[in-house]
Each structure stands twice: as structure tokens, then as C-alpha cells.
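Objective 1.3, modelling of assemblies. Example input:
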Amino acid sequence: MQSGKIVVENLYKVFGPHEQEAITLLKQGWSKDKILAERGAVIGVSDVSFSVEEGEIFVLMGLSGSGKSTLIRLINRLIEPSAGDVFIDGQNVAKLPHSQLIDLRRRDMSMVFQSFALMPSRTVQDNAAFGLEVAGVGRKEREQRAMAVLKQVGLDTFAHKFPHELSGGMQQRVGLARALAVNPSMIIMDEAFSALDPLKRREMQDVLLELQKTHRRTIIFVSHDIEEAMRIGNRIGIMEGGKLIQVGTPQELVDNPASSYVRNFFETVNTSRYLTAGQLKADSVPLYVHNGKAPDALKVCQDLQALDKHYAFVVDEEKRFRGSISLERLALLVDNGRTCALEANLLKQIAPLTEDQPLDQIIERLVDNEGPMPVVDSQGFYAGAISKGRLLTRLQEE
Amino acid sequence: MSKELDLGSWVNDVVQHLLENYSGAFDSLGSVVSGFSEGIEALLMLPPAWLLIALFVGLGLWRIGARFAAFTAVSFVLIVLTGFWEQTVVTLGLTFSATLISLLLGIPLGIWSARSERVAMITRPILDFMQTMPAFVYLIPAAMLFGLGRVPGIIATVIFAMPPAVRLTNLGIRQVNKEIVEAGQSFGCNSRQLLFKVQLPNAMPSIMAGVNQTIMMALSMVIIASMVGAGGLGNDVLASIQRLDIGLGFESGMAVVLLAIILDRITESFGTTRQVTHKTTWYSWVSAKLKFQRQ
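Predicted structure (C-alpha cells):
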């Protein structure tokens, strides 16, 4: 068994008749469409396995009908699984007796909904206290705890209003407060911010990320918004036709999409934001090795003029970056009448970029520095250079 | 008229059989219903006319507004002046007792059919039958089984007026937003908590609409039930028909109409305002009015 806060193993959900037969047929390689046509059974979730680490935000993505909403409802068993296991802290939820399931839901898990799903006849405070009320917490204590979580989401002054008196964003803050009030170790969020306008959506993402900073909870977040997934997700799982087809960090999915379906998700996104120095580097700057003997200034100057380049880099025999020099400076050195060796004191010292540095930091360094920036790998060896021209060309390609 | 199939005689046989074998059960059921409705009538007769009128006017003022309160006051005064007050109170008592019995049976049945497909499947055709069968027809077996008087009137009224309470309770619960029900479940409601904390509160507007319809149907049936001697305004309506007395018919008919309008508007207000405004309890309303007066 895999380890993790939530472990899902070979989970299936079939809607309609002949559940078990449909699963057997799926295992024999029948397609979803064939099973629907010949057996009348709809495959909701098909052989899904994954695990979510403690304190992680795991985003499930997919087109509508891909089974992501069904999958999360199998995890807290709002929908009964047809086959497979769901372990939460090692306890198999799929096989839990009903009374223990209710106990687990009251104690340790909660859910946030796309349509907010607040009770219209309850005040904001009573809505926030709903889970505690169900769990049998006394009035005084649950009201105190409800106020505390409302304060966390910035709604304590609205405690005695009714949901319909609040804007959509504020209503979902109440939904979030209700989920937090029971102090669960995991929260399931079903398209929780999808009904909000883009500005409010970003604001709620910030609220969520801020809450995660103070108290890390395990969160499974369903979304169809790739920007949202990349912004808040530690890892993203992509679903297609009831199957989980790829799981990885945002970067891994951008770099190595498993199929065109996965790639299509990222097509609409400006992935250049996720470019790193390692992806942008090139051998565009002439390189000279200082192997005990410094390179000759006149030779470098002539080379640069011949190549129509403006800068040269110098590394030592171990390929560690030593410094950079511009054509103007070389010309001055050579102009003094005699050639000289390019010793370290003549070179301009620059702290190199590392390969994993993101775009915003690269831009910052390029703005501060006149010439191209050297890039080193994780061991500190020179790996290439990024010039302003190179960067602009790459951004245009994306 | 020759008959190939004599359904009617079978029904006669069934009623006859019930009468011969279970008359004791019907008698005791009858005395319970009779005692219940007499109690309610006595309760309504207890206060003087002006106090009962003031109660309705106050209710109208709280739930709807000053104009409706004025309308209520004028209507009741009109009824008192035309000399129909006592019959109106009797009719009100019959309507209330039939409505209460209908709701006591209908709402739980509605809840049950919302939770079980099988119950819903069985109740549906029965409700259709109860509602579409001409109302007069119930009076015949009711009178045979329970004798003449208020009891068969109330029993027939209950049968006629109960369907909307069942239907709209069932519908209301089934129409509660799916995610709200899921929210209830995901926070660990057991099935009793789900019913009382999630489904019923959210189905309230629909259930109240059912209550309103039940009252209106009960009122119309109580008038018809005067044919088996249920009493009240129906007696005057019936008498006016028998004597072709247009004047009496108009006066008693008007009393029925005014009573119907008042009951309809007041019960309707409980269904519609609940979900859109603050919870206005009567005491918060009174205190708000008093504050306004002081300023």
C-alpha cells in the first residue's frame, strides 16, 4: 500500500445496472462507450489510484463529465464506490460501517461546494456553526468557534446577516468558514471558486493560500480552471473519461504532458510564466577557459568582432564561472598598445543564475545587469547563458 | 341504462361490509374526530367576537400590512352586522379541525413518499383519485359510516383537502438543492438530522404552499359538507338554494368569500416571506414598531 494522508486504490464507480459485470468487462479491456451501448451502465470512475500527502493541495482537473466530481464524492462517500479502496489515515472509508462514516465526517473532513450550498434560513453564524451543531457541540461553544472562523475569513461583522444579503464571494467565505469550523484535517473543495468572477476567484485563492500558511490542511480541490490549478496546486491530477491519466507538479505537466489531452489544457495558459533558467539557457556567449593560463585579450577581441558578439565568459578548468567581459572593455585593453592576459581582476564578476530559477527572477537580474547572464547547474558548473535578445525570442515563441 | 359491469354495487357491498363488521371502530374514530372538532370550536367561541376579530386584524397587520388589516376588520364587521358571525365561527372551526387532521396525516405521508420511491409510487394514484373524484361523492359513504353531522363532514373534507399537503411536502423535499443536501451529509448528518436540519427547513416554502391549499380546499369542502349536516355557513348556503332565496345566498356566500380571502392571504404570507426576509418574529416586529412610535 502506498503511504499518504489519502490513498485511493483501484477505485471504480459504475452508475446503472450490472455494476460488477461492467467492472469485469472494463478489466477485460472493453471501452466505456461499448459498455454503455451493450450493458447500459455508465462508467463514472475507472480504476483510479493516487495518493495525497499530508498538508498538500491536490488539484483534480478535467473536462466536465470526466468524473472528477464523482471521484471526490467517492472519497467522502457521498457516492458509494462500486469497487476499490479509499484510505484516509490508513482507515478504509469505502468499507466503513455507516455510523463510523458519520463520525469521521463530523470529526475530520468537510466539503466546500460550487453553489456554496448555504442554508438560506440560517444566519451566517448559524451556517458556519452547522457542522458543530450536527456533531452535538453546545450552543455557546459552537457560536464562539463559528465567530473565530468567520474572523479568519474576514466576515465576523456579518455574523447575523442572512446568506442572501451577501455577495457571491462573501457567501463562499461562509462556505469556507463552515468547512473550517469543525477543524478538519482534510477539506474537499468541489469547483469551490468556479462560480465567482475572476477577481473574486483570485481573492478567494489568496484567502485559501493564506489559511494554509497558518494551518496546513490536506485539500483536494476540483477545478476546470488551469490557471487556478497551477496557482494553488502542489500537484495536479488530470482526469479524462473517468480515468486519472496523469499526476504531477504543474512544472512536470507543462514539461512532459502524457497526451495531447493534457497538453491542450496548458495551451490556453501562458506557460512562459513557468519557464526556468534551465529552459532558457543557450550557448550564445563565446566561452574561454582559464586553465592556469588566462586567455589572451587580443584574441578574444578579434574573435568577438568576427562572431559579431558583444560579450565573452571565462570559466576555469572545472567549468566554474569566473566572470564576463564586454567588447568595449576588451577594445580599451587592446587599444593600450599591447595585448594582455585576461586575469580575474579584469573580468566583471556576476553571480550566476541557477537552472531552476523562474522567469520573474531572471528578468530582474537581466534588467540589473548590462550583458547576458550566466547560468549554472545544481552542482555550480557553467551550463549556458541567457541574453535579453534570447529571452525575448523565447517569449515570443511561447 | 343497462350495465355490463356493475362497479357501483361492489362499492355498495364493501361499504355495507364495513358497516356490518367494523361499526365499532368507525364509531370510536367518529367520537375522536367529533371531540377534537368540538374542542376547537369551543376554543373559537370562548373569546367575544371583538377579541377574535382583533386577533385576525393583528395577524394581518403583522404578516401583510395596514391595508390588509383594515380589509380584515371591515370584512368581519360586515359579517357580524349581517348576522352570520356565529355560523362563520362554526365554519372556521370545521375548517381548522379538518385542516389540522389533514396536515397531521398529510405532512408525514409527504415526508415518507419523499424518502421512498415505493411509497411515492403507491400514494400518487391514490392522491389523484382523492383529488379528482367529485367532492360530493365522499359524502355518501362518510354519512353511511359515521352518520349525519359534523363527523362525516370533517372526514370527507380531510380526504378532499389532504392531497396538496402530501404532494407539496413531497415535492418540497425532493426539490431541495442537491448540493445543500450533500452539504448536510458531508458534515455528518444522520438521516434524522438531515430531515429536520436540512430538508424540512429548505422545503418550508413549498410545505407552506401546501398548507395554504389544504386550508382553501377544506373551506370549500366544509361548505359542501353542510349537505350531511356539518353546520356553519354551509347551512345558510344550502337553505338559500332550497328556498331560492337570492338575498340569503348572497349574504352567506359573501361571508364565505371574505373568510376565504382572509385565510388565504394570511397563510400565504407564511410561505412566501420566510425565505427572503429576516426572521421576523412577532416580538421583534412589535418592538420595532414601538421604537418607531417613540421617535
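Residues 279 and 355 of chain A are 8 Å apart (CA to CA).
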